[in-house]
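Write out this protein's structure.
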Amino acid sequence: MDVRNQTRVAEFIFLGFSGVPHGQFYLFLAFLAIYMVTVIGNSVIFTLIQLDSHLHSPMYFFLSHLSCLDICYSSVTVPKILANFLRQRHTISYHQCMAQMFFLMTFAGSENVLLAVMAYDRYVAICQPLHYSQLMSSQVRVPLAVASWIWGLLNSVLHTALATNLSFCGANQIHHIFCDVPPLLKIACSDTYINEVALHAATVFVGVSPFMLVLISYIYILAAILRINSNTGRHKAFSTCASHLIVVILYFGLANLNYNRPSSGYSLEMDTMVSTLYCIITPMLNPLIYSLRNKEVKGALWKVLGGQRKKYTSPVRQ
């Protein structure tokens, strides 16, 4: 008889919120509110970009993909968490776990690369403004967006395929709030060497490499801004990338805490908090950051709501 069939568990139990057994209903309300804000906020951003011709520029094209990713990213984890809050046992079936991990890694990997692409877009807009239309034409930006999705998909296919070959010997308690590669490797009883090698490789190609591209882009952007003589010019140039920079700091900072912290010295409560911030709170904050700091987005929203659109000028000619 196949040993793998003997050791494969039927379901996993999440221990992430086990420390608050009497506050499940209040957690349900809090996560439901967060999820609704995430879906509505990102849907509004996506819809405004499609409807308003003033937002049909490369920057907003990539922002529409980011909003779509955030909706998908949040929808992979939060609905299952909400369902478990209404049950005594926080469980997920084996096949649902594999599916959740697959889609989670797809959207997370795609967002990493997309944020790097958006940083390159801001670099071209500020450092190469005369060639912006050519360097960010539809023949360039569409393949870049598609490549972001494909990059995340390929990374996810690899890790999910490797995870399905793991054996768990009856161990089914995951010290986490959703299915992800590191928590599953901790409870696996089969050899995880190949999985760990793949995970480290993904950290470099899907995590570190996009972050380095973002960092290099902003070094050039900062150098270009400092060469601008007037304070007004520097402020206008920086305002075009401020929202993206805030999102990058939040996303990569929390991703680093979530995946690259030491194995010792962190409690289950700390793991739960970091994972919640990274996978649930960040997708909610992104549309708020972009809408609150962006005159064009606020102008488009005001127009859709039937108000008189205020006159504004784009900080960088596109």
